[in-house]
Here is the input.
Amino acid sequence: MSEPDFHTAIELIGKRWTGVILQHLLAGPARFNELRDRIPRITDAMLSQRLKELEQAEVVERQITVARPVEIRYALTPVGTKLEPVLDAVRTWSKEWAAAHHNRD
Amino acid sequence: MSEPDFHTAIELIGKRWTGVILQHLLAGPARFNELRDRIPRITDAMLSQRLKELEQAEVVERQITVARPVEIRYALTPVGTKLEPVLDAVRTWSKEWAAAHHNRD
Here is the structure.
């Protein structure tokens, strides 16, 4: 079984902070500062790095608004929005997993 | 939105090699050497480390066979087997993602 796309995909979305960033972008495009404020403990450097990786992977794109002053917003690409069922599945599982842990405590 | 379980879960399964190891274990329990042989390029140290993390997370457990010589096999726990829809969703998305890339080449 050789599935380089699966391998690359799961490691992309599982990188530290990336899942949480994607989850916020599923709610709609957001400015850098908005994302930072919504994600406690993330640093500017880390957020910037992760957004750059997601842009390179064509999962996120930058949108420049026509309003003045110009604003840059980060948005999911069409294929990026298709991550919703993946993140939903992770969320569902994470609750089952947490419940299994608690039952043993 | 504060979802520590989601955060921890997505980073657990997205760690380098972990997704691939889980995918193989979904097919059934396997010995260490079987897993290593099925996963090209993984080192013994890395496989050992990842299995240890998954055991700590109660996603994987060691089974000791009653046969002689005794064999140790790694198996998904009940909550570990519930990762199947998560990994299926990642696989489906990885194909859409790869197709989106290829269309731009």
User: Anything to note?
Assistant: Chain A touches chain B through 47 residues (CB under 8 Å). The domain at 4-104 of chain A is CATH 1.10.10.10 (Arc Repressor Mutant, subunit A). Chain A has a mean pLDDT of 91.
